[in-house]
Amino acid sequence: MECASNPVNVDKFLILPISEGSRTVTEVLSREGSFRILEVLSEDLLSVREISRKTGLPFVDAEAKVMALMESDLVEIKSRSSGLEGKEDIYGPAKRFVAFSSEDKSMVV
């Protein structure tokens, strides 16, 4: 297959150089519970309260992990809902794949 006939949307990729700059994303992903949050968000858009309930993580831990995943461009706010407690952010996975590249971007893994 030729790449020209099957273009790749580069906006769907989070390409990080293998260097100190990629350390934040790898640290966030290595934290206990982060992958579980991404798993539940891949099934449905959820509030932090719902993420906490579905993952079994304490609310404070779920909230901190969601914020870290947002800072790493792996999770994003999808909408806001109004509930009994007021407005609540609803989160979902960013539609991206993580790829690591050499610093000169000549090799992607």
TrEMBL record:
InterPro entries: WH-like_DNA-bd_sf. This is Transcriptional regulator. The lineage of its organism: Archaea, Methanobacteriati, Methanobacteriota, Stenosarchaea group, Methanomicrobia.
